[in-house]
Structures are given as structure tokens and as C-alpha cells.
Amino acid sequence: xxxxxxxxxxxxxxxxxxxxxxxxxxxxxxxxxxxxxxxxxxxxxxxxxxxxxxxxxxxxxxxxxxxxxxxxxxxxxxxxxxxxxxxxxxxxxxxxxxxxxxxxxxxxxxxxxxxxxxxxxxxxxxxxxxxxxxxxxxxxxxxxxxxxxxxxxx
Length: 154
Fold this sequence. Notes:
three-stranded antiparallel beta sheet
């Protein structure tokens, strides 16, 4: 007989700020994501971007509320954005203004390493992944493309 402990997969807890689209009043709150110890794509741990864009866990993700410690499952499509807490600097950003659902305004920058012929904001938004990586207040932010209504280059 296998016990419940046999199914535990070690995870790395990463604190992030998440806005959930709960219709009434979306707020940014601090949560913990549970990332894999190893990335499928490179050496080191799984990144937040890899976690959010992983195909097999597209629908639901486990989260932990930082304030209460409560663990629950959230539908990934209800996430407006996830912002890392670690500050980083990134030069040469293209600035864009996003209008998201519920009239949420977000000014952010993006860095597109593609050639000029494919580096328009439209090309960046039309990538396959459901979450796009941007930079907001010197931190990486991952915006759910299903929540984007309008984008304007600055």
C-alpha cells in the first residue's frame, strides 16, 4: 500500500504578487507559487515564466496565501498578472500602455530579442504562450493575454 507521502514532489516556494480577476475589485496580493526544482529547458530551477506557460498545468495551479498560509487551487485563466518580487534592471525596453479587463491600466516595458522585422509589439503579443513577460517597476511581470483588451505603444 502506498501512502500519501509517496506522492510528494519537492517544490521551491517563490513569493510573488498576483492580481486575480474576481470581477468585484481585483487587488494585488502576495502569494507563494510552487515551482519545480529543475527546469525542463535549461540548468537550474524552473522559472515563473516556465511555470505559467507550462502546457500540462494550463488550467489550475496550487497557491498559498502569504498572510494566512491557506493553500488552495486557482484557475490559471483568472490570473490577471503575476509579478516577481525581485528587482532587476533591464536597458533598452520598449514602453507600452496596457488596458486590461475591469479597466486596469498597466504601463510596462518589453524587451524583444528578435530581429527588427519581428520585433513589433504585435509580434510579441502574438507569441504562443498564454502569459507574456514584461517589466514593471523594475520587476518581471507576466500578463495573461486573455485579460488584455488594448495595447498602445508609448
